[in-house]
Amino acid sequence: MRRETFADEWRPRILSVLRIVTALLLLQHPLVKFFSFPVPFPIPMTPLLDVAGSIELVGAVLLLLGLFTRPVAFILSGEMAVAYFMGHASHGFYPIANGGNVAVLYCFIFLYLAVAGGGAWSLDAARSRR
């Protein structure tokens, strides 16, 4: 029988840390859009940005709690893909040039969370233990 390594032991916890930190970073986006906190939103709000901000707000809170992680992360991954192609890709091919680095990174982190789940420190894990 294989002995559990440090990495094996901590993998579910570090997954939770990734989820929590990503959710806190994402939460900044709807706070700026809706409340101009901590800085003002740089462009006028549109109905599409209202929808995006609402998805981000609800999604960030659910991810922070680790509740419904997989479906929420899948939706957020799609939203970030749309954000990249609608808001950034038309300004050049390379994400570094078109300002889309963050959208691409979020997209793939959320895609990973959609597959991996919320980790050990999540409400999803607590619900599955019952």
List its traits:
130 residues; mainly alpha; 6 helices; 0% strand; globular
Explained architecture:
- The protein has 130 residues and is an all-alpha fold.
- The protein has one domain.
- It has six helices and no strands.
What can be said about this structure in brief?
The protein is 73% helix and 0% strand. The protein is an all-alpha fold and 130 residues long.
* Low-pLDDT regions: none
| Mean pLDDT, all residues | 96
Number of strands: 0
**Tally of individual domains:** 1
Count of helices? 6
The structural class is mainly alpha
Largest sheet: none
- Terminal CA distance reads 28 Å
Q: Strand-residue fraction?
A: under 5%
Q: What is the 3D shape?
A: globular
Task: Classify the helix fraction into a percent range.
Answer: over 70%
Order of helices and strands: HHHHHH
SSE arrangement:
Blueprint: H1 6-35, H2 47-65, H3 69-87, H4 95-98, H5 101-116, H6 123-129
